[in-house]
Structure formats: structure tokens, C-alpha cells
Specification:
Length: about 180
């Protein structure tokens, strides 16, 4: 997070979980970082969620995607496809994420699959792969009050059913934000 503006590409596995996605996007709305993604990334999380959660209403997932694009019109990266063939990663299917990060000027790829984005492959582009938990820890280190404010807004928005800050942090912890939730308690 050495750069003045943190630009973070959110991998599909990070936006898959609704509570984590909601928290990360609220942090972006508070201008704590600039989010990036591609249509391919958004379609990937929707496809995986439909497969794993057939109980969800597909139109609700599409609505979420539409709202993400509405609230973050600068987030979608296009024109990265030509870079894909020039990149090397352990899992070839992740090259589109890497290419999008390069094209979008991201300095971070927020992902749960750190092994798929080795430092030696990313560093020549000044990009770092980081877990969602470590990403939120960095945001806390840079502006703890703003992160706490966003957490308060998130808690207040959860009306059906009402949730306490502890319950929200417990949920975020289950979504992988173990160190961050502990620090925010």
C-alpha cells in the first residue's frame, strides 16, 4: 500500500461471499481503496454461486452485479484479453485476473488463492497478491477510524434480522477475516 491510491482487483473467490463482498464494497465506497474487476470475474462468482447454492434466486445475483457496476462505474476493466497469453501463473485459468490487474493499474490482487499468484510473477508489474484478511488489516492500519465507521454503517444496515457488531464480526471472521475481526473487536 505504498502507492498513494490503493487500486485492488477483487478476485471472484473474494466476492463470492455476500458478507465479505458487502464489507469490501462498503470500504471502497468510503474511498479507502479503488476496486477493480472484470465482467468475467463477476460472471465467475455468479456461476459458482448458482452451482453451489441452487436455493438462491438467479435474478438477485444479477441484480447484485448490476448494482456493483452502477455504484462503481470505473471498476470494470476491459481490453486486458491480449495480455493473457503473455503471462505465466501456476494455474493458467487465473491469467485473466493477472492481465486485468495489469491493464487496470491495480497494485493489489485480493484473493483467497495466494499460491496461484506467486510474488516472482507479479513483482515485475508492481502487483502484490494479498488475502482479504491482510488487505483489511492494511486498510485498518491506514485508517482505523474509517474502517470502524464503515463497520458501524454495515451493522446499522442489517435490519432483517438485526445484528450486533459482535455478530457481524463473527460472520466476517467465518468469511476469512480472522485477524481483522479480532483487531476490530
Amino acid at each position: 500500500m505504498e502507492n498513494l491510491k490503493t487500486i485492488a482487483l477483487l478476485d471472484a473467490n473474494v466476492i463470492y461471499s455476500a458478507p465479505l463482498r458487502d464489507f469490501l464494497l462498503r470500504l471502497a465506497r468510503a474511498n479507502l481503496y479503488e476496486p477493480k474487476w472484470t465482467n468475467e470475474i463477476l460472471n465467475e462468482w455468479i456461476k459458482n454461486l448458482k452451482k453451489n447454492r441452487p436455493d438462491l434466486i438467479p435474478s438477485n445475483l444479477e441484480r447484485t452485479k448490476t448494482l456493483m457496476d452502477f455504484y462503481f462505474p470505473e471498476a470494470e476493466i476491459n481490453g486486458y484479453e491480449k495480455l493473457i497469453a503473455t503471462l505465466f501463473l501456476p494455474d493458467r485459468s487465473d491469467r485473466h485476473v493477472f492481465a486485468a490487474a495489469i491493464k487496470g493499474g491495480a497494485n493489489l490482487i485480493v484473493t483467497n488463492n495466494l499460491k496461484d499468484f506467486p510474488k516472482r510473477n507479479l513483482e515485475q508489474y508492481d502487483i502484490e497478491a494479498i488475502s482479504p484478511d491482510d488487505f483489511v488489516l492494511k486498510l485498518i492500519a491506514n485508517n482505523k477510524q474509517s474502517v470502524l465507521h464503515v463497520l458501524g454503517i454495515l451493522v446499522d444496515s442489517l435490519q432483517k434480522p438485526l445484528k450486533t457488531p459482535k455478530q457481524v464480526l463473527d460472520t466476517l471472521e467465518k468469511c476469512g477475516l480472522k485477524k481483522s475481526a479480532k483487531l476490530l473487536r
